[in-house]
């Protein structure tokens, strides 16, 4: 019921077509049910009378034609309205899911996985859409057709109609058993679609790496394995569903034989006419075909229930990070304070990712962050823009707890260039304007100048109107990083965080970017995560991270004198055997 209530609200816009469709289906069933009675009348009172009654045949034939035409038109009308209602319903569900996902924090997205969310937005919504269309049409048509045919059969001959009741009862038991087992397999199959989508997404996004390492066969093997897993599960489900067919066929032919035998005896004893027997045989097929449709409905509903539950999980998921009831809409300055901060990605984790973090950064300072892989550098800066919330303690920006700010205001004032740089399909200008949709072309050029991107953008065939392929595949890694930095600068933030965002840029260009930041962005607090000491040695102060703790915090000279980790890294990168790029190495 919870699932129906959650999804039912997305039908409201299409409630009238959802109401009209069953009415059309009802009329179609009425027309179809009356046709056998007209046919019986033709046989008994038009053909089986001495000399035949052509006038009666023409009259009943005309009525049959009108009924058939009515059935056709109402069937078409029902199909059109059902399609409109189901596609509109699916549109609303997709929109609601997409809007809900936009409110998710990083931890919410981690819970579902990107591939899992894509499956729910596509395959699962399509299953629910098909099920809703079937509910509007078949769920009305099939039961009504069976009931009307049963009523008409009892009106003609209660003795023979009893055969139908026994057949319906038998098939209902068989169907219930089949659906119970099939639903389990369908539920498992949809979970495996997530794995398949993850494989496809990973392969397509990293196709250049796959080809560079000649791993096509390995990837095809992974794809085959994921596909085969779904195949095996669906085969088991279909093997259960297909059992419905032989039971249905046995029941149909048994009913025909029993009705023919009983009907023949009743015709001989003159308690049944030939036309009535034909009418009963037609109702027999109507009833059993309705049962077949009902079995298909149950199979489709079994699939859609599993999909619907997965959709509702997305819609009911509460974002971990929300706006406060009375948010603050102004960030005073770029000062940052960490007070007794601890952080874990999962509640109840045995060991926090960040622990004992106490830190004060003055507004306008340039802060470098250095540390080994897994030292929680990124986790530290993610707390500043509230991409995650602290587990204990608090983070202050501009003198206020980040949890007091309106999320949009905070993230506009704290610009982050993440480790994984992403460009979207569109022109260079369109990508830059993600930072400020109202930025002029001159403002975009200025941001690119500061990020040392103006030179290569101007050299492109169409300059700032050059089209960027999806993911930025037609620009180098270093160019992508500089465009992402320029995009962040267009926000004109009070805090700028560069998370290893110049790793693909040569040292000469890196130095130019740092110089531009120092000279042209004096009022912005700049936090730079880097692996190269040359990228951060000119910073006002440098944080050294080790296993989620701050191991050292001071100037370049202070850390060389007092911090062993910093000194070791410095000597490794500047010593005679160091192999870091000193002349350039843009990707």
What does this structure look like?
The protein has 587 residues and is α/β, with parallel strands linked by helices. The chain is 62% helix and 10% strand. It has helices at 2-8, 15-47, 54-102, 106-112, 114-156, 158-205, 207-212, 216-242, 244-268, 274-316, 377-382, 407-413, 428-432, 441-450, 454-458, 477-489, 507-520, 556-562, 564-574; strands at 336-343, 354-361, 366-371, 392-397, 400-401, 414-417, 426-427, 467-468, 495-499, 525-529, 541-546, 549-554. A six-stranded mixed sheet has the order 6-9-10-3-11-12. Strands 2-1-4-5 form a four-stranded antiparallel sheet, with no helix packed on it. A two-stranded antiparallel sheet has the order 7-8. Helix 3 runs antiparallel to helix 5, helix 5 (114-156) packs antiparallel against helix 10 (274-316) and helix 9 packs antiparallel against helix 10 (274-316).
Task: Supply database-style keywords.
12 strands; disordered C terminus; 587 residues; 4-stranded antiparallel β-sheet; alpha/beta
């Amino acid at each position: 019921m919870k699932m129906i209530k959650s999804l039912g609200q997305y039908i409201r816009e299409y409630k009238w077509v959802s109401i009209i469709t069953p009415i059309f289906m009802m009329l179609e069933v009425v027309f179809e049910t009356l046709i056998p009675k007209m046919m019986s009348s033709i046989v008994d009172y038009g053909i089986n009378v001495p000399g035949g009654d052509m006038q009666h045949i023409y009259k009943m034939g005309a009525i049959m034609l009108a009924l058939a035409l009515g059935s056709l038109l109402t069937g078409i009308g029902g199909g059109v309205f059902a399609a409109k209602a189901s596609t509109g319903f699916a549109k609303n569900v997709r929109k609601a899911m997409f809007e809900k996902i936009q409110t998710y924090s990083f931890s919410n997205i981690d819970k579902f996985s990107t591939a899992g969310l894509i499956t729910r937005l596509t395959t699962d919504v399509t299953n629910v859409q098909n099920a809703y269309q079937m509910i509007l049409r078949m769920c009305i048509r099939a039961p009504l057709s069976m009931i009307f045919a049963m009523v008409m059969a009892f009106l003609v001959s209660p003795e023979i109609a009893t055969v139908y009741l026994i057949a319906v009862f038998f098939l209902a038991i068989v169907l219930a058993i089949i659906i119970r087992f099939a639903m389990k397999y369908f539920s498992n199959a949809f979970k495996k679609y997530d794995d398949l989508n993850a494989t496809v997404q990973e392969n397509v996004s990293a196709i250049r790496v796959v080809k560079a390492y000649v791993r096509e066969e390995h990837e095809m093997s992974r794809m085959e394995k994921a596909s085969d897993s779904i195949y095996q599960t669906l085969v088991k489900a279909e093997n259960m569903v297909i059992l419905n067919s032989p039971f249905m066929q046995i029941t149909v032919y048994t009913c025909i034989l029993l009705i023919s035998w009983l009907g023949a005896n009743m015709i001989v004893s003159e308690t049944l006419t030939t036309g009535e027997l034909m009418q009963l045989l037609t109702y027999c097929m109507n009833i059993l075909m309705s049962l077949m449709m009902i079995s298909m409905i149950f199979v489709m509903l079994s699939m859609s229930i599993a999909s619907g539950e997965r959709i509702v999980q997305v819609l009911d998921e509460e974002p971990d990070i929300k706006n406060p009831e009375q948010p603050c809409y102004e960030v005073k300055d770029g000062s940052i304070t960490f007070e007794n901060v601890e952080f874990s990605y999962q509640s109840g984790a045995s060991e926090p990712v960040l622990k004992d973090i106490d830190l004060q950064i003055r507004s306008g300072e340039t802060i470098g962050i250095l540390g080994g892989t897994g030292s929680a550098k990124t986790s530290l800066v993610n707390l500043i823009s509230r991409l995650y919330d602290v587990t204990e303690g608090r983070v202050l920006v501009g003198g206020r707890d980040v949890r007091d700010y309106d999320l949009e205001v905070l993230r506009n004032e704290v610009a982050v260039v993440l480790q994984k740089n992403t460009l979207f399909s569109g022109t260079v200008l369109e990508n830059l304007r993600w930072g400020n949709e109202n930025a002029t072309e001159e403002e975009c050029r200025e941001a690119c100048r500061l990020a040392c991107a103006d030179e290569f953008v101007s050299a492109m065939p169409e300059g700032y109107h050059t089209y960027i392929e999806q993911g930025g595949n037609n620009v180098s890694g270093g160019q992508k990083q500089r465009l992402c930095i320029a995009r962040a600068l267009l926000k004109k933030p009070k805090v700028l965080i560069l998370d290893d965002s110049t790793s693909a840029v040569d040292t000469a260009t890196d130095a130019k970017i740092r110089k531009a930041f120092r000279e042209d962005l004096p009022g912005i607090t700049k936090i730079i995560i880097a692996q190269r000491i040359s990228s951060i040695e000119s910073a006002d102060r440098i944080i050294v991270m080790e296993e989620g703790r701050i191991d050292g915090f001071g100037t370049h000279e202070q850390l060389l004198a007092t911090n062993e980790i910093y000194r070791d890294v410095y000597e490794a990168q500047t010593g005679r055997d160091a192999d870091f790029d000193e002349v350039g190495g843009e990707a």
